[in-house]
């Protein structure tokens, strides 16, 4: 059984598990199934807006798909959530990604 199937199986037992949803989205990225990954990240962040690690990955995915304005909004929202959570490391990663995006536009 491949990783995607295993994660889906675990999700069937725990459909609201943010970690598993995030992991599945990352697996889809590895398989270049960007649309599926994007949908999963967006669903995850709708149900758990404080799962801040997903903002970075969703933003990078959007950048790779030439959706720069959307990526910037994702980074900014993630920065706000990271700041609220007191997570300086993630805040700085998101800020750097946002600044790099601005610089390359």
In words, what does this structure look like?
The structure is a single chain. The protein contains 6 helices and no strands. The chain has a single domain (3-104), classed as Serine Threonine Protein Phosphatase 5, Tetratricopeptide repeat. The model has no long low-confidence stretch (mean pLDDT 95). The longest helix has 18 residues, at 68-85. The protein is globular. It has 105 residues and is mainly α.
Q: Would you spell out the secondary-structure blueprint of this structure?
A:
Blueprint: H1 3-13, H2 18-30, H3 34-47, H4 53-64, H5 68-85, H6 88-104
Helix pairs in contact: 1-2, 2-3, 3-4, 4-5, 4-6, 5-6
The stretches of 5 or more residues where confidence is low (pLDDT under 50) are none
Average pLDDT score = 95
- What is the top-level CATH class? Mainly Alpha
Task: Spell out the helices and strands N to C.
Answer: HHHHHH
Radius of gyration: 14 Å
Oligomer: single chain
Task: Please estimate the helix content.
Answer: over 70%
The helix-and-strand class reads mainly alpha
**At CATH's second level, what is the architecture?**
Alpha Horseshoe
- What fold name stands as the CATH topology? Serine Threonine Protein Phosphatase 5, Tetratricopeptide repeat
Largest sheet data? none
Q: Into how many domains do the coordinates divide?
A: 1
Distance between the termini: 42 Å
Total beta strands: 0
The number of helical runs is 6
Strand content: under 5%
Supply the CATH superfamily name.
Tetratricopeptide repeat domain
Principal-axis shape equals globular
């Amino acid at each position: 059984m491949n990783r995607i199937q295993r994660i889906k199986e675990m999700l069937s037992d725990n459909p609201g598990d943010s970690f598993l949803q995030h992991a599945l989205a990352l697996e889809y990225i590895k398989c270049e199934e960007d649309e599926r990954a994007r949908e999963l990240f967006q669903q995850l962040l709708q149900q758990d807006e404080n799962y801040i690690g997903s903002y970075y990955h969703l933003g990078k995915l959007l950048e790779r798909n030439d959706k720069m304005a959307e990526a910037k909004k994702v980074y900014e929202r993630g920065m706000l959530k990271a700041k609220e959570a007191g997570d300086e490391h993630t805040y700085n990663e998101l800020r750097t990604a946002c600044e790099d995006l601005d610089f390359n536009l």
